[in-house]
Amino acid sequence: MMPEIHQKDKKTLRQHFKQLRSQLSDEFRKDASERILQFLLEDPTLPAIQTIHTFLSLPEEPDTHPVVEALWNLNKNVVVPCVQDKQTLEHSLLTNWQDVVTGPYGIAEPAVEKRIPMNPLLFDWVLIPGLAFSEKNGARLGYGKGFYDRFLKATPALLIGICFSCQLTSDLVQETHDVPVHAILTEKGWIYYHENIDNEDNV
Fold first, then answer.
1. Helix 26-41, helix 65-73: angle, nearest 10
2. Are 30 and 56 in contact (CB under 8 A)?
3. I need a labelling partner for 105 at 20 to 30 A (CA). Which of 47, 48, 184, 195 fits?
């Protein structure tokens, strides 16, 4: 249940969902991450998709490392974010784990000398982390740095929020600078928000 708090108090919301997510068992995280991967691989539009941007997950998040492995096996281009000057995101093709180091905020990313820059205009899908997502309209509660809001405005890709089902809520307020996702994928399956999609070819 959501706490009785002001909807715009994002700090309190973040604390709530961090605590909620931290209570999940390792067994649940593993099983749920495997289900998310299975739903992703079974999507009928995946064969036509070539370039997928994905976050490299932190321990508390759905595990995206098997996602990367599966996409490599399908000969997809896998692109990951890189934090530049702790302010903006760059984007690099990822072709192996040997190039990965721990970057700012403890997030894995390719080492600077190993990066292969990629243009966000070329992305087909973007897999997006978040502390919570609105199951009503696809609004996202991020970590508070604003990296993804700035990035998502610059790509025509299908925007897919990746989270556990306990991170879904109906209580998020979408502010003017927020970019809603086009779909959410949890261990229970897909939720689409067609009203958020300008290019129906992405669905």
1. 30
2. no
3. 184
Query: Could you tell me if 149 and 114 are in contact, meaning their C-beta atoms sit under 8 angstroms apart?
Result: no
DSSP string, the chain: ---S--TT-HHHHHHHHHHHHHTS-HHHHHHHHHHHHHHHHT-TTGGG--EEEE----TTS---HHHHHHHHHTT-EEEEEEEETTTEEEEEE---GGGEEE-GGG-EEE-GGG--B--GGG-SEEEE--SEEETTT--EE--SS-HHHHHHTT--SEEEEE--GGGEES-----TT----SEEEETTEEEE-GGG-S-GGG-
Burial class (CB in 10 A: 0-12, 13-18, 19+), 178: middle
Residue 159 in 3-state DSSP? strand
Greatest distance between any 2 Cα atoms in the chain = 48
If we measure between CA atoms, which residue out of 34, 3, 36 comes closest to residue 20? Answer: 3
- Supply the pTM of this predicted model: 0.91
Can you tell me the distance from the alpha carbon of 19 to that of 11, in angstroms, rounded to the nearest whole number? 12
Averaged in consecutive runs of 10 residues, what is the pLDDT profile of the chain (203 residues)? 53 92 96 98 97 97 98 98 86 97 93 96 97 94 85 95 96 80 97 75 47
Terminal Cα distance for the chain, rounded: 32
Q: What is the tens place of the pLDDT at every residue in 147-167?
A: 898 899 999 999 999 999 999
